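hey so i finally got around to running the thing on that chain from the lab meeting. sorry it took forever, my laptop kept dying and i had to restart like 3 times. anyway pasting the input first so we r on the same page abt which one it is
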Amino acid sequence: MEYLLGFRGIERLVELKKRGQVIVLLPRMEVFLYPKDRMPLHEVQEAVTSAIDGVVERGISSPEQLPARALEGIRRSIPNLECARIEMRAEYVVFRRTPVTKQETQEMYQVLARASLEKGEIVPMLGAEVTGITACPCAHEGLIEKTRERLRGEFSEEEIRTIFNLVPVASHNQRNVSTLMLSVSEGEKIEVDSIIEILENSMSSRLYEVLKREDEVEVVYRAHLNPNFVEDTVRKILVPWRTSHHCPTARWCMRRARAWRASTSTTPSPSG
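ok and heres what got predicted. didnt touch it at all, straight out
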């Protein structure tokens, strides 16, 4: 694989048709090809453009279909490919309501998709990147102990436990950006909305584009009832596969979380 051809910054409008709705995406794509023999650049570029445009004209029902079907078209035009990869990223809007006032908001996420040609097989992958918040467990635990010391002498131990059960203890917050990418077994499927939900549930609290004061209080309240280290977030991303029989089997999984000055990730590997 000494000969590499790459195309970056390819953008197309594509219709995502799901559950009777049409969502317009503007993905930015990168294409990397490893042909066995050298080819004129204009021929390769024409093959790439034609394959992508063909998928765009037909539309898709899931984001990973765009790179996967485009790669199939490229392989038909360039049959001597040893391996290849197409990656895409696009903004994806989900309509939500705030937790207290129920105000409708448009939440923006990053949808990720990739298709790789490996040993003659095209492997599609789907993922998302989500921003939320985490509350630091160290500061949280320290403030619990400090508050407990101040309460002793004024309240019984049972009363102190009741107070801590009812009143969240403060901590410092971090903005958390988490990513999950999956390749599921043939015949199985996972929706990008499900991936977004998994990522948001792994954090201390989700975020909202617009918050009234009552909503802001609720978001902070929830976050401090659920303090998380950044590594906790990475571990919790896989909880649905450990606790539910309804999750599709993951052939390949990459998960990552970043929180201001702390970050952790796992090496991409097969996941059962």
